[in-house]
Amino acid sequence: DGRLRLSRQGVIFKNSKTGKVDNIQASELAEGVWRRVALGHGLKLLTKNGHVYKYDGFRESEFDKLSDFFKAHYCLELAEKDLCVKGWNWGTVRFGGQLLSFDIGEQPVFEIPLSNVSQCTTGKNEVTLEFHQNDDAEVSLMEVRFYVPPTQEDGVDPVEAFAQNVLSKADVIQATGDAICIFRELQCLTPRGRYDIRIYPTFLHLHGKTFDYKIPYTTVLRLFLLPHKDQRQMFFVISLDPPIKQGQTRYHFLILLFSKDEDISLTLNMNEEEVEKRFEGRLTKNMSGSLYEMVSRVMKALVNRKITVPGNFQGHSGAQCITCSYKASSGLLYPLERGFIYVHKPPVHIRFDEISFVNFARGTTTTRSFDFEIETKQGTQYTFSSIEREEYGKLFDFVNAKKLNIKNRGLKEGMKQSYDEYADSDEDQHDAYLERMKEEGKIREENANDSSDGSGEETDESFNPGEEDDDVAEEFDSNASASSSSGDGDSDRDDKKPAKKAKIVKDRKPRKKQPESKKGKDPNAPKRPMSAYMLWLNASREKIKSDHPGISITDLSKKAGELWKAMSKEKKEEWDRKAEDARRDYEKAMKEYSKADSHRGEKSKKKKKKQEKLVKGKGDKKGSTSKSASSKSPAKGMSDSFKSKEFVSSDESSSAESKKEDSEDEGAASPAPSSEDSASGSD
């Protein structure tokens, strides 16, 4: 999927998935064909240098508009050609530019873009074409076989001639000749392992112990050079479309990891004139420097694409990236000038022009971190979690400066994305060389040291991830008795308990008491008045039911709403008056009810006080009886375990009052042992 724009200058198509842009100049157009295809109608454009572009998804009604536009601005007749649908499997093969066309008579049956051919093999009277797989399609065409009948012409083998025509335009990688240069034993993160990288004029050859990959430069979308957070390593990322395959695994990114300290001296396998002619000063025959710098320079010159580096963003620690987690793995998120890239497992590149909105969310497990969510226009959601709270201010400022929509703030005026829908993404300045990176690093460090941290703290406060900490402290605070309505009654018990238990009690008490605090509605209280609509609905319900027999409750409500909307103002005013009368009656009834309620309240208070006094009196009586009972019990067992008066009086835990009562009770209950007491006392 993508967007197609026709202008006087030419035709521009931008791929929605990859962001790749096809730009066809008006002067290059040679032919335009309109035809019916599987998805509606299609447009086929042929250029003077043999390239073919096909776009479908048009409506039949758009032909006249397109035809007029082509005549007026491109001086081309948009020819209508229908495909042959006879179903015959014999015909004529024509090679035109990048296309193989199988025709029956003058009508084409099918066309094969030769750039999709991955291999071409020949047999006796037979040619087999194999194709690159399309990951986006549910079903992929793997191969097509053509039977080529033998001809009587001498010296020309029709099978070989057919194969040569295919191979001249096909995207077949043949490692013929010597490599321009070789980088030995480079550490590769995806696909994992150590690989020798052989650089050929048209493709890159990754040679490992178990796997070999040949990557044509035409499949390279973007190049990234990213400094690691530790400032000692560098990531070199190559974005690929279509991806390289290893079994069922697809690698959309090739990630190399370099140490900044590794140096290399490189000699290209070309003479100086060839180097100058081919690379126009971008490369020289003999080069030396950091390994990552050499690889990036060679790749940039051969692929002919800019290298994307991190922009002006600088995190809390001074690094140009943010440590976070995506899915199960921890990695680094780099905010770029025109997108975000996450390395390394799995690598993710998100362009700003495909972002619908971003969202800052609280961390699910702790308040020390937050989550950064990105949702694309296609509905894909990426969540980068466990980002340190200190990074919030810098990231928020960056997102704000790039005018991305922030979900939790809502849409604001002036926050419209100012990206050209058809501009090629990542048109940054190449900023990849070691000296320049070091200089910029020094400047940033100086700026970071000079500037105060105040601004960062202010922006952090707008998110306030620490608010939750404060709430918890209040909830479990031992002095937070004011917050708990039921805490007063049990205060004596709580004070004696250890601190930990007190915390638990404070936390749970309000939950137990909540249902009690919610008083049930008084059945004697006046009922609230109905609205004008409800009064009308109650009066009209039966009529609606009779007009629409068997109508459900939900449909009845919908119908009533429609009727009420359609009702004239005069009729509505009549029901408004009734509602106003009902409201006045309700207010009058409420005044009377509140007076009666306050009178009842006073009575109930008096009653409660009386009950409390009665309970107190009973409690005192119970206390005295229990004391007398306890004093009698030792008298009964006196013969077994005798206690003298001195022993009782010297007991520190007993009060004076209890001693008095004990002695009186003992004297009354057993006068005989009193003489023994005195005797034992004198002894």
Automatic annotation (TrEMBL):
One of its GO terms (cellular component) is nucleolus. Residues 498-512, 602-611 have a biased composition (Basic residues). InterPro entries: HMG_box_dom, HMG_box_dom_sf, PH-like_dom_sf, RTT106/SPT16-like_middle_dom, RTT106/SSRP1_HistChap/FACT, SSRP1-like_PH1, SSRP1/POB3, SSRP1/POB3_N. Residues 526-594 bind DNA. It is found in: Nucleus, Nucleolus; Nucleus; Chromosome. Pfam families: HMG_box (PF00505), PH1_SSRP1-like (PF21103), POB3_N (PF17292), Rttp106-like_middle (PF08512), SSrecog (PF03531), SSRP1_C (PF21092). Residues 439-532, 590-683 are annotated as: Disordered. Gene3D superfamilies: 2.30.29.150, High mobility group box domain (1.10.30.10), Pleckstrin-homology domain (PH domain)/Phosphotyrosine-binding domain (PTB) (2.30.29.30), Structure-specific recognition protein (SSRP1) (2.30.29.220). Residues 526-594 form the HMG box domain. SUPFAM superfamilies: HMG-box (SSF47095), PH domain-like (SSF50729). One of its GO terms (molecular function) is RNA binding. Its main location: nucleus. Residues 513-525, 590-601, 612-623 have a biased composition (Basic and acidic residues). The keyword Glycoprotein does not apply. Residues 478-488, 625-641, 668-683 have a biased composition (Low complexity). Keywords: Chromosome, DNA damage, DNA repair, DNA replication, DNA-binding, Nucleus, RNA-binding, Transcription, Transcription regulation. One of its GO terms (biological process) is DNA repair. Residues 455-477 have a biased composition (Acidic residues). The keyword Magnesium does not apply. Component of the FACT complex, a general chromatin factor that acts to reorganize nucleosomes. The FACT complex is involved in multiple processes that require DNA as a template such as mRNA elongation, DNA replication and DNA repair. During transcription elongation the FACT complex acts as a histone chaperone that both destabilizes and restores nucleosomal structure. Belongs to the SSRP1 family. This is FACT complex subunit SSRP1. It comes from Zosterops hypoxanthus.
